[in-house]
Amino acid sequence: MPTSRTDPLTREVVELIGSVVARYHEEYEEAAAAHALTGAQARVLGLLALEPTPMRKIAEQLKCEPSNVTGIIDRLETRGLVERRPDPADRRVKVAAPTDEGRETARRLRDSLHFAREPLGELTEVERTLLRDLLKRMLGVPAEPTGA
């Protein structure tokens, strides 16, 4: 079981992480609204822009019920941003995939998010790499092999 860290530095770091997350979500919701999307619709569209994905996997990534994802996909499909296709690996499974308009909307959404990108741009590559590696470590993601 993890130990409870209540020293002032740990509390300050936790507060700062919370502030970053809150600001990111606020900007994300504003960017989504500018494209007449909810935050959840924008997140799903962003995931699908990376690769067509089965709806069950989307639900796992968003940590929500598959029925919620079905409703989100229905609304995105009605707007012409997403389509359902048979999974090439298993035709019994449906994947959601962005349309050309959906990919373009996802790109515009991503490009409009400045909160994290601009301050990160002020960090050196070494600092960004260190931050990435520390965040991955906090999340339990294995470290990437270094090119020795």
From TrEMBL:
InterPro entries given in the database record: HTH_MarR-typ, MarR/SlyA-like, Tscrpt_reg_MarR-type_CS, WH-like_DNA-bd_sf, WH_DNA-bd_sf
Coiled coil: none
Keywords from the UniProt entry: DNA-binding, Transcription, Transcription regulation
Sequence ranges assigned to domain HTH marR-type in this UniProt record: 10-140
Protein name: MarR family transcriptional regulator
Keyword Lyase tagged: no
SMART domains hit by this protein: HTH_MARR (SM00347)
One Pfam assignment: MarR
Top-level taxon in the UniProt lineage: Bacteria
Keyword Transcription regulation attached: yes
